[in-house]
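Exercise 3.2. Students should predict the tertiary structure of the chain below and write it as structure tokens, then compare their answer with the key that follows.

Predict this chain's 3D structure.
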Amino acid sequence: CTIAVAERMVLKSPCLCTSPCFAFASSRSFGDNGQGCDSEGTPAASALVAPESDDAAAERILSFLRGQGPAGVPGRTLDVILNWDDDRLEHVHDWVQWCFPTASRSQAHPDCPILTASSIKLARKDSLVLHGLRRIFHRFLKFLGLELCSHANGEPGDLEIRKLRGPSGFESRVPVCWAYNCAEGNHNWRRLSRVLECLRLLGLEPELEALHIQLLDLWARGHLPESALKSVQFWQQCSGFGNKPLPAHGSRQGLALLKEKLLELVSCGGKRT
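Answer key:
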């Protein structure tokens, strides 16, 4: 009965960051194999285990990103999460800490392991870990209505992030991912902070820079509400680009954008480059 009540609160709450049942129920929503329940749909029992070292706990994260272990719940592998639909990614909340690990303890899910200094060094040199991280990064971008692309005729690693078009593109994702929709703004803004910090810690510099540039562009074009200012400033810190100036909100809209394009054409002698 308690679990059923908690699940209803998870599915109905507009912002799970502040829900008292958030940490308890998130791993048990959408109950099926690999989602926090056993094959009969009953909550999986928690086994009593001896405390593990920080490095051992961090190794479980690396094993998960290699595709060799679960994300805290039996059966919840990287491939399983990659195949979740957008609704499941939105409403289940204890997968992000495994897919985008950092060295900071999650306030919402303090039991999730974190990276240590030694595990960060190992991860930066582990091609399987970095491949897994890139895979889930691509999936998370699609969840946000974005896509990662290579610049035309660009150097290897010269990346950019663009808005997806079409029925499941960026515009369709605005109410869920980009709009101010709860007391704390939007919990996906917090997820973005974690993603930026993870990319920086594990050395995926091209992806980090591409995401940072796109987020600032969304802010400057007014695709983010002005109330997201604190989140945008925090993204600057998490990405390591805190010393770069923040463009004014909406400064690349309307006449301001037209003026910028005209100046760009003049500086190029009237030719596009």
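Discussion points: The chain has 13 helices and two strands. The first strand starts at residue 146 and ends at 150.
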